[in-house]
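Structure tokens please, single chain.
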Amino acid sequence: MTDAPVTDVPVTDAPVITAPAATWPAAVLAVVGAGPRATGVLERIAANAPELWDGRPLHIHLIDPHPPGPGRVWRHEQSPLLRMNSMAEDVTMFTDESSVIDGPVRPGPTLAEWAAQFSGGDVRFAPYAEPADPDVLGELRELTGTDFATRRAQSAYLDWVFRRTLTELPPYVTIEWHRTTATAVTGTPDGPQQVHLADSATPVEADLVLLTQGHLDAVPDAGHRKLTRFARRHGRFHLPPAFSSDVDLSALRPGETVILRGFGLAFVDLMVLLTEGRGGTYRTEADGSLTYLASGHEPVLYVGSRRGVPYHSKTRYQLQGPRPPLPRHFGPDAVDALLALGRPLDLRRDVWPLMAKEIGFAHYHELFHAHPERTALPWPEFLAAYDRLGWYSDEMTTLVARAVPDPADRLDFEALDRPLDGLAFATPDAFQEHLRDYIAQDVARREDSAHSADLGAFLALLSVYGQLPRLVDSGRLTARSLAEGLDGWWHGFFSFLASGPPGFRLRELLALSRAGVVRFLGAGLRVGTDEDSGTFTASSPTVPGHTVTATALIEAYLPGASLGRTEDPLLRGLHRAGALSEEVISDSTHTHRSGLLTVTTDGASHVVDPTLGGPHPRRIALGAPTNVRGVAAFARPRTNAPAFRQNDAAARALLRALSAGRGEDLDPTGAGPVTSWPPPGRVLSE
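Here you go.
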């Protein structure tokens, strides 16, 4: 792909207009939230408009206090120390040859390809403009495909994608940015919608409203509020779940003992902000290890979680063999077969064996093709047997043991999932040594291409995630299975394996551990309070009899989905008015309230309104707050990303609905009005 330079499109505090104002009435779309999800839909509107739009004016309002493109999470104004957890070559906002969509594929550069233009590359992507921040520009000039960019660099990329999208919109489409918060939406289902703004008495009036607010804050739940009251009563510090880049940590004193509950990406951010962010530095030793040089301003961090170990580090290599053809064992045909069983489905019993077999296939595909010297059977012979055997069968265990001599090359989900199960240490120091060794081995494995089978498994994890929505939408998973299996175990296991930090962050963690700035608590973490001393306590069966007391407690994880506690004023108001529905899955044995906003699964993603008994014809929602799970706003290239499929379907539905008469027609998909709601197992909840 080549791009000729075009006139830059500024993004300022003033409204952004991408085409001359029309003199005759326009169809109007209001988009609440202007981050990467909104950009993705706009890009798909630009791609699909030549087919689906008749050329009359279309005016789009973008409503967000944060800059269009990056939005809140990826805005430039955050610590330059914070980084992405994906390599630059693995980040894209564009469809490609793998995308199974109805609209046209429009390829574009990955973050790495886009950054290469600033180091003298031959291609300059339009609209070309060097980032104003000299530090970001310097980083982009040095960025390689296997680097983990800062979030500020990703912010610059997302800003460019947004500006490029503006240039690709047809001339009859205009965009206006309102740098404010949408506080409410009103209007009848058969008339225009009014989006009320925090800084104006005059609402924005639109034919359709698209909600793309992204990840949201939530008011602390009862348990966290109790801990906060304890902290205030005793002059201590408690931080409920929050977005790490937004929190104020200044109250934590140098040398203060702090318990952190959570060992995932939020912990990594907090670790960085409380150490290097307070002036500490790292020195690289002759053997490549790091030594932490403390500034004296750091607190002492005691960290534990359910597993008691950090997320696995991201791989830093490419496949050494051919890309595994996915899906094979858990694709549309497998989902069809599951649904044809005609009975309620349990994730662990019915679905997970197929998911595991899919992940195992990709793992062994890479092992046999890239490292055949470590296998004992020809690939065709192994595959023929593998295809016909169940994942948990004795025959499969025998096959893998015969074909893969080294146990380190075999895929053992149970050992991966709970690495500290059954282990107990006599002293805290003994556990520190054990976990440092565990972390060092993990980093070494994830940065050694000899273990590229792990990357094959990672790609299959992404494929599996992309197949799950249809199974969830069918209503066939039991309520308990959805609560404990999908939203509980599977989401945590996927994040643990696939959403970890870069390896260098774990090497920094090792240095902090050796310096005594970070101490490991163990698995099954138990946190309590002591009224007599006014302190928090933490203990773990990993080190029996050992209890840590602390004057500060940080919940080192993001707020969970909760419509009832959301801090987003628009969604909070609709929820209180009973005009949207929390996803509730119910059967004879269990009821699961997910906290997610219920939307239709027809591709249009209409908000389900209990006052109407079904979908609202003029309100649509995409992304993190909705019950379409696990759909990130940007993706890894060539993975048929679910987000891009959803963006395309939503954009086409929006264009159809708007072109049908300014939104009056409840037929956005061309399939007729929705006549049956809710699906089996769904309960409309006010």
